[in-house]
Specification:
With about 450 residues, the protein is of the alpha/beta class. It folds into three domains: about 120 residues, Rossmann fold (3-Layer(aba) Sandwich), CATH 3.40.50.12160; about 230 residues, tm_1862 like domain (pyruvate-formate lyase- activating enzyme, Alpha-Beta Horseshoe), CATH 3.80.30; about 70 residues, Beta Barrel (OB fold (Dihydrolipoamide Acetyltransferase, E2P)), CATH 2.40.50.140. About 30% of the residues lie in helices and about 20% in strands. Strands 2-1-3-4-5-6 form a six-stranded parallel sheet, sandwiched between helices. The structure holds iron/sulfur cluster.
């Protein structure tokens, strides 16, 4: 008879792509390891790393140092590092951290069971080989009650933005065959899932290099047509590759949520050029105007880097001005930090750290104001909410997301977790909303698989 499974703890740093990779790690190890959220009982401790900013990388190094104690207490525990830092450092990481057992890149996840087996035999393992196609994916098993799914549709990036390490650590861009993606989503919906987020470093260039040509928008159409899909999202998009066809899809596809994350990075043409972004501030603002025309309720979020080498106060004012014009609902903003191998790391004219910090503070004040303003606009209206779980603020409350991606907390029975409900927004807070379940509203779900009648059915 088989004994109880061993336990795997996976610590994830970074973006949704890494969250999806961590889920895949858990899946490929599922025959031998059950996931745990208690690191102190792990037989296998994996750290999935991010190298996009120096701060994220420093956190990984400090965690690795502190794990020496746990490793001494549990000498049989295997310790592994995956993801971008693993890919970037390879053997160097193994040499620097004596208590580390395995190092593997994003393309090696499917080989993880074999790596773990070798590490258990006392060997120190490094596997950072980059694939030359989208790596094969095992068929996913969906946990009962899963309502949201992250589905990776491509790997790598060909854009070589001058600040970004991704093309070096994740390799060139490879798209996953559309049939595999559609099957994975259909399986998820058949298991009761409601929301799907398609992931890639640059999803809107999806399809390049596939034997049968397909655009990202065509893939969205195929997925939108699947019965049972309530919400479709994607991340991350590059403004240059945001085609007219994709913009139009925001006004056409019923499941496509009214939210787009569109990283602008800077509002100064000189800096955008130095970043090798391939668009101007005018191009960006025109696309935003067109998006808002086809989808008036669209919520827009972005990424911004401040203090890129050579950024002057005038350039920074260009960013502040663009932020006001685009009226972002949400934004992630960071100080520039040089990354290994990237072209920007060689640029002179570094912006002093105190200037970077002061500009970031000014930018974040403005972004916070805009987010709060966007929240206040929602007050008094009813919105469809996908209930994701119990609120972190209070065990008495539920927590969910609007189609426009804002978080709302409201009172309601636990049975609503995983359901779509209508919620009236009662209070706006700087980073969240408070609501009340709207009386007498119901959402008919799933939609009938009738292509002639794809409208969402909400009645109040
Ligand atoms: S588009 Fe630019 S920022 Fe995004 S992953 Fe590719 S190189 Fe990095």
């Amino acid at each position: 008879m088989l004994g109880p499974k061993k336990k795997v703890y996976i610590k994830t740093f970074g973006c949704q792509m890494n969250v999806a990779d961590s889920e895949q790690m858990a899946q490929v190890l599922a025959d031998a390891y059950a996931p745990t959220d208690r690191p102190e009982e792990a037989d296998l401790y994996l750290i999935n790393t991010c190298a996009i900013r120096r701060k994220a990388e420093s956190k990984v190094r400090s965690l690795l140092g502190s794990l020496q104690v746990l490793k001494q207490r549990r000498p049989h525990m295997l310790l592994g590092v995956g993801g971008c830092v693993a890919q970037q450092e390879g053997e160097r990481l193994l040499a620097a951290v004596p208590h580390l057992d395995l190092v593997f890149g994003a393309h090696g996840i499917c080989r993880l069971p074999e790596m773990v087996r070798r590490a258990a035999q006392g060997r120190r393992v490094v596997d950072i080989e980059l694939a030359r196609e989208f790596p094969p994916q095992p068929r996913r098993r969906w946990a009962p009650g899963a309502v949201k799914a992250l589905v990776t549709i491509m790997q790598g990036c060909n854009n070589f933005c001058s600040f970004c390490v991704v093309p070096y650590v994740r390799g060139r861009e490879y798209s996953r065959p559309p049939r595999e993606i559609v099957t994975e989503v259909a399986d998820f919906l058949a298991a009761g899932g409601k929301e799907v987020t398609l992931l890639g470093q640059n999803v809107n260039s999806y399809g390049r290099g596939l034997p049968e040509p397909i655009t990202f928008t065509e893939l969205l159409r195929q997925i939108d047509a699947l019965p049972g899909l309530a919400r479709l999202r994607f991340a991350t998009s590059h403004p240059r590759d945001l085609s007219a066809e994709l913009i139009a899809a925001f006004g056409e596809l019923p499941s496509l949520c009214e939210h787009l994350h569109l990283p602008v990075q800077s509002g100064a043409d000189r800096i955008l050029q130095a970043m090798n972004r391939g668009y101007t501030r005018e191009d960006y603002l025109q696309k935003v105007a067109e998006l808002r025309r086809v989808c008036p309720g669209l919520s827009l979020s972005t990424d911004i880097i401040v203090g890129f080498p050579g950024e002057t106060e005038e350039d920074f004012q260009g960013t502040m001005d663009l932020v006001r014009q685009a009226a972002f609902d949400q934004a992630f903003s960071f100080k520039y930090s040089p990354r290994p191998q990237t072209r920007a790391a060689l640029l002179p004219e570094r912006v002093p750290a105190e200037v970077q910090a002061e500009r970031l503070a000014r930018l974040q004040n403005l972004l916070n104001e805009l987010t709060f303003k966007a929240h206040r606009r929602l007050v008094g209206r009813d919105h469809e909410v996908l209930v994701e779980g119990i609120s972190k603020r209070s065990p008495e409350e539920l927590c969910g997301r609007l189609r426009t991606n804002q978080v709302v907390n409201f009172s309601g029975p636990r049975e609503l977790v995983g359901q779509l409900v209508m919620v009236r927004i009662a209070e706006a807070h700087p980073h969240s909303l408070k609501g009340i379940q709207a009386e007498g509203c119901s959402i008919t779900w799933p939609l009938a698989a009738d292509p002639q009648a794809p409208q969402r059915r909400v009645s109040c």
